[in-house]
Design brief:
With about 100 residues, this protein is mainly alpha-helical. It contains 3 helices and no strands.
């Protein structure tokens, strides 16, 4: 008969706190229910690239560079798409 040993971990100064099973489950649920949003913390203009980067798990700076590169040949379409996303996407604190 296998015995399950519970270990209580104590936070050592300088160490990261250990997450409980509930916190791990909540984090997993958040990962499963990812939503496209505008970032309120990782933003330059309106947070579109920051939120898109969080959603796609890509560095937002890379998305900003791609957006700027696309503005050169397709300026009106990229600007319209960006402002459409500004109007349509909620910020992460509105979710």
């Amino acid at each position: 008969m296998a015995h399950i040993v519970q270990q209580k971990s104590f936070a050592v100064s300088g160490a990261l706190p250990v997450k409980s099973a509930y916190e791990k489950e909540a984090a997993a649920m958040r990962e499963q229910t990812r939503r496209l949003h505008r970032s309120s913390t990782n933003r330059m203009l309106a947070g579109v690239c920051g939120g898109l980067g969080e959603y796609l798990d890509i560095d937002p700076m890379l998305l900003r560079i791609v957006t700027l590169a696309l503005i050169l040949p397709f300026h009106i379409f990229v600007v319209l798409a960006y402002f459409a996303l500004v109007l349509l996407l909620p910020t992460d604190n509105q979710l």
